[in-house]
């Protein structure tokens, strides 16, 4: 499980993009292989409607291009915690969007606040993208040079 | 409180989207033209990759003939809605979609919410 790198991504950034535009997602890169995780509504044609099953979908972003990405090296405990979170049943809602979920997972696993709050508290990919770019401007990361392990808050958002 | 405000905002937003859902189109930067094949007589195949969005999808294009030109607009449809298209897109997987437009390439203009450009 060692050397896992968590990525957070958005394909839009900043207020020039539409309020509800774009998408945000997470990746795990391990031993040169990258796996994509995103929160998608059952109503989207890219998904299979799985009813009450989890809206965490794997692999749908593999061909998409992020305009903003940030990477974190995970400790073994953080990697284990991430994997357990991915097995949770999470529902996409207008108040729990792809951006809300990606932001919450990063906060929960590595303790960094990648803010996604847009107007009136609705969490959007464009705000998440802007926050990623702001953080990257202060401390750049890449998949080969992720932010080092800091601590493992292992909070209980989904526990 | 924040969630209530977000829900209110979404209610008005959904009314707005419902009102204009069938005519929404993409910005130029949201459509990546991957390949254009005009080898078939009078048929132009456009392979494109729309911006990936969890709240919208692109079911195809609308066509509007204007003089000797045809305006091709990529339809941006809200999830849960069915939007009218003139040419349905074929899913090529890997994020790529294909539409076949029965017009020669030199007559086609791509129409976006922020402007138009000639395909050729």
Rg of chain A:
15 Å
Oligomer: heterodimer
Report helical residue fraction of chain B.
10-25%
Our count of helices of chain A gives 3
Largest interface: A-B, 29 and 24 residues
Class by alpha and beta content of chain A: alpha+beta
Percent range for β-strand residues of chain B: 35-45%
Distance between the termini of chain A: 21 Å
Tell me the total number of β-strands of chain B. Answer: 11
**Rounded mean pLDDT score of chain A:** 93
Write the topology of this structure.
The complex is a heterodimer of chains A (159) and B (120).
Chain A: E1 5-10, E2 24-30, E3 33-39, E4 56-58, E5 68-73, H1 76-86, H2 98-110, H3 125-138
Antiparallel strand pairs in A: 1-2, 1-5, 2-3, 3-4
Chain B: H1 2-20, E1 31-37, E2 44-50, E3 56-57, E4 60-66, E5 69-74, E6 77-78, E7 87-88, E8 90-93, E9 96-101, E10 108-112, E11 115-118
Task: Please tell me about this protein's structure.
- The complex is a heterodimer of chains A (159) and B (120).
- Chain A is built from 3 helices and 5 strands.
- Chain A is of the alpha+beta class.
- Chain A has a 5-stranded antiparallel sheet, covered by helices on one side.
- The longest helix of chain A has 14 residues, at 125-138.
- The two termini of chain A are 21 Å apart.
- The mean pLDDT of chain A is 93.
- Chain B has 120 residues and is α+β, with helices and mostly antiparallel strands.
- Chain B is built from 1 helix and 11 strands.
- In chain B, strands 7-4-5-10-11 form a 5-stranded mixed sheet, with no helix packed on it.
- In chain B, strand 10 and strand 11 form a beta hairpin.
- The termini of chain B are far apart.
- The interface between A and B is medium-sized, with 29 and 24 residues.
